[in-house]
TrEMBL record:
This is carbonic anhydrase. Keywords: Metal-binding, Zinc. Its cofactor is Zn(2+). It catalyses: hydrogencarbonate + H(+) = CO2 + H2O. Binds 1 zinc ion per subunit. It is an enzyme of class 4 (lyase). Belongs to the beta-class carbonic anhydrase family. The keyword RNA-binding does not apply. SMART domains: Pro_CA (SM00947). Zn(2+) binds at residues 38, 40, 96, 99. The keyword Zinc applies. One of its GO terms (molecular function) is zinc ion binding. Its EC number is 4.2.1.1.
Amino acid sequence: MSHLSEIMEYNRQFVDEKQYEQYLTGKFPDKKLVIITCMDTRLVELLPKAMNLKNGDVKIIKIAGAIVSHPFGSVMRSILVALYELSADEVIVVGHLDCGMAALNADHMIQEIRNRGVSEEVLSTLDNSGIKLDSWLQGFSNIKEGVTGTVNLIKKHPLLPADVPVHGMIIDPNSGQLEIVVDGYEKISQK
């Protein structure tokens, strides 16, 4: 049985038994937070538990490395939507120890792209269009710098309200222990 078939079979039972009722909530986050975190599988249940979050409390955006790489990309748009349209009023960037983005090597990934059948013509077209895969696919060497860089990119965005605190944290994916890297309240009080 395929993963898709397993999902659909389970979903029919989930809906028939009305198991969804325990998750019913509104679209506005009760704790008025938007969290940007990594897509790491270890954080799916651990991060909400470690932060005392339940369904309906926050907007969570999951991306590789918790790194916002473009100030006008879809992640930043999602942050702004959460702030302006969905009642969020704080942002927390949560990176984690032992992150795969720290070890990401652009050259290796580009070779894997080739190995999976993407042609040299496509790679050349991207390069000639100004898309530099070697920098776009590069990871980071220091998780604190990665989190701080993303906090700074968000905080300096021209459409971000000046009174929105942007925090940075690191979570240990083994224990759930959180460390504050950037206290966004301090940045607000300094202005």
